[in-house]
Amino acid sequence: MTASEFADLAIRLHEEPTVVETIDYVVQYALKAVDCTYAGVMLVHGGKQEELQVETAAATDPLVEELDQIQIQCGEGPGMEVLSDRMTIRVVDTQLDRRWEAWAREVASHGVRSVLVARMSTGSGDVGTLNLFNTEPDAFDADDEAVASILARHAAVALASARRAENLWLAIDARKLVGQAQGILMERFDLSADQAFAVLLRYSQNKNLKLRDVAQLLVSRRSLPD
Question: Which CATH entry fits the domain spanning 3-166: 3.30.300.10, 3.20.20.450, 3.30.450.40, 3.10.28.10?
Answer without folding.
Answer: 3.30.450.40
